[in-house]
Amino acid sequence: MNRMFTKQEEKQITQSIKAAEQQTSGEIRLFVEDYCLADDPVFRAAELFEALGMTKTKARNGVLLYIAPQSRQFAIWGDTAIHEKVGTDFWVAEKQLLRERLQKEAAVEGICQVIVAIGEQLKGHFPADPGDNENELPDEIIYGQ
Q: FRET partner for 62 with CA separation of 20 to 30 A, picked from 45, 47, 50, 99?
């Protein structure tokens, strides 16, 4: 697996995730692998979502961004509770934004913009409990095979 991002870019993305999660009980993760290991990147994202234990968050409000740069594929997968709140149109808009940034070779900018937008939705529907805002999942980028 070739690293898609520099250390500075990884830090920028991780900081975006941390900032978004401070306002919500939701969890956001980024998984990157060179090639999509499924015919459909949405299927792969759903498979990884389960494998990474993201269905086990208390409020079922996790979101996974999945990118396979060598396959030129990506997907965004939201758990049941957040999907019920934002609906398909939100995900379509975020995928379009990310697609445009990836095509312009501005992946980090696009990923961070999508993280901010997802964080805003999570904050609106699942605000953080100031007394108990446990970070249920690690914020670091996950690199696959």
A: 99
Q: Which residues of 51-77 are buried (b: 16+ CB within 10 A; e: fewer)?
A: ebebeebebbbbbbbbbbbeeebbbbb
The CATH number of the domain holding residue 38 is 3.10.310.50
Task: Count structural domains, the chain.
Answer: 1
Q: Does 140 reside within a domain?
A: no
Give a yes or no: residue 15 inside a domain: yes
92-115: average pLDDT: 96
- Mapped onto helix, strand or coil, the DSSP state of residue 90 is helix
Residue 135 covered by a domain: no
- Torsion (CA) 9, 10, 13, 17 in degrees, nearest 10: -160
How would residue 95 be classed by pLDDT, with cut points 50, 70 and 90?
very high
pTM of the entire structure? 0.95
- Residue pair 95/78 in contact (Cβ under 8 Å)? The answer is no
